[in-house]
């Protein structure tokens, strides 16, 4: 599987770089992430829960940063085990490029291999789940800067087309709910109608 996307972040390049290397921010932004702990130089032990089609599992793995060219790029090498669900491993090349004084273009190309039950459910479901996780990561990452990361090149961006106009960021701020809870409250609103 290969996934390539580009996003525009509403912050200068240095700030984007610092956020990409802040484990507290990454833990908040990675869907299902339970922990990111230092595990050697430029390496981290990661635990997260993920669902790919009918397979849901808790994965434990390791992430290593390589080819670091601060504040422009690095390569993330990762591998994880999900017990009976299988395993995943791969790498992602991440580059940051200034897009003016207050914006940064983040591009990445990720390649991954899966085995076990994950490989049996089919590449289409695996690709879809990977795109969904990446989209949620960038949504949360953009929110860390007080806005959303604008997606400028992607194969999948239809989640915004199904969101109702009434569920705005103001609704989230007023209730303190996260975006996932907002969806549930929208469903509750429909059932009351």
TrEMBL record:
<protein>
    <recommendedName>
        <fullName>Carbon monoxide dehydrogenase</fullName>
    </recommendedName>
</protein>
<dbReference type="Pfam" id="PF06240">
    <property type="entry name" value="COXG"/>
</dbReference>
<dbReference type="InterPro" id="IPR023393">
    <property type="entry name" value="START-like_dom_sf"/>
</dbReference>
<feature type="compositionally biased region" description="Low complexity">
    <location>
        <begin position="158"/>
        <end position="175"/>
    </location>
</feature>
<feature type="region of interest" description="Disordered">
    <location>
        <begin position="146"/>
        <end position="193"/>
    </location>
</feature>
<dbReference type="InterPro" id="IPR010419">
    <property type="entry name" value="CO_DH_gsu"/>
</dbReference>
